[in-house]
Amino acid sequence: MADFSKFNWTFFHSAPVVAILRGLSAEACERVAEALSETGFTTLEVTINTPDVGQIISHLSRQFPSLNVGAGTVCTPDQLDEALTAGASFVVTPILDEEVITRCVTDRIPVFPGAYTPTEIYRAWNLGATAVKVFPASQLGVEYLKDIHGPLPQIKLVPTGGVSLENIASFFAAGVYGVGMGSSLLRSDLIAAGDYSSLKDHLRRVRAQLPQHSGGGAQEPT
């Protein structure tokens, strides 16, 4: 099961970006995790549909104590079991599955469930979500996040999908709690080419767009 003490909120707040590793080999995941750690990022998820995901999460958790390592694309209770058995310290979902959320809340596992509409976002928060993953943000944009934040300022939002180097600052200016980033952060062309030096340069450029102080006030486990 997950060691809940592994999730470090100070780490997360210092760089409130969840890096999404999907479908990469174990070797590539390790190289990417190393690049993230060296450039000031602190939180990554390995999607549950990645081959050998359990071994990868377990290995990264041991190898990189300066990173929060979680599981993403968790849609079912069985997948949640797989993630926790592997040692994931937090869980991200693309959908609103109430059983997954409530189990995480009961067991004090940070959970970022996916939601799209105001009703889904509000429901996820009321179920006890640590923060709500607004997905896909590419279809909604920054103005949508501002519109949600107006009447529901208490809800911590983590837009995912469509966040990039060019617009990440505008998302934080809109008051989001954090963001999720996949290929726009972890460029597949550079990873495929094994060009981790250029990947680190790109990561540093994204990191420079983050506000100095972010987050705070989420429903953090106690």
TrEMBL record:
<keyword id="KW-0119">Carbohydrate metabolism</keyword>
<protein>
    <submittedName>
        <fullName>2-dehydro-3-deoxyphosphogluconate aldolase/(4S)-4-hydroxy-2-oxoglutarate aldolase</fullName>
        <ecNumber>4.1.2.14</ecNumber>
        <ecNumber>4.1.3.42</ecNumber>
    </submittedName>
</protein>
<dbReference type="InterPro" id="IPR013785">
    <property type="entry name" value="Aldolase_TIM"/>
</dbReference>
<keyword id="KW-0456">Lyase</keyword>
<comment type="pathway">
    <text>Carbohydrate acid metabolism.</text>
</comment>
<dbReference type="InterPro" id="IPR000887">
    <property type="entry name" value="Aldlse_KDPG_KHG"/>
</dbReference>
<dbReference type="Pfam" id="PF01081">
    <property type="entry name" value="Aldolase"/>
</dbReference>
<dbReference type="GO" id="GO:0106009">
    <property type="term" value="F:(4S)-4-hydroxy-2-oxoglutarate aldolase activity"/>
</dbReference>
<dbReference type="GO" id="GO:0008675">
    <property type="term" value="F:2-dehydro-3-deoxy-phosphogluconate aldolase activity"/>
</dbReference>
<comment type="similarity">
    <text>Belongs to the KHG/KDPG aldolase family.</text>
</comment>
<comment type="subunit">
    <text>Homotrimer.</text>
</comment>
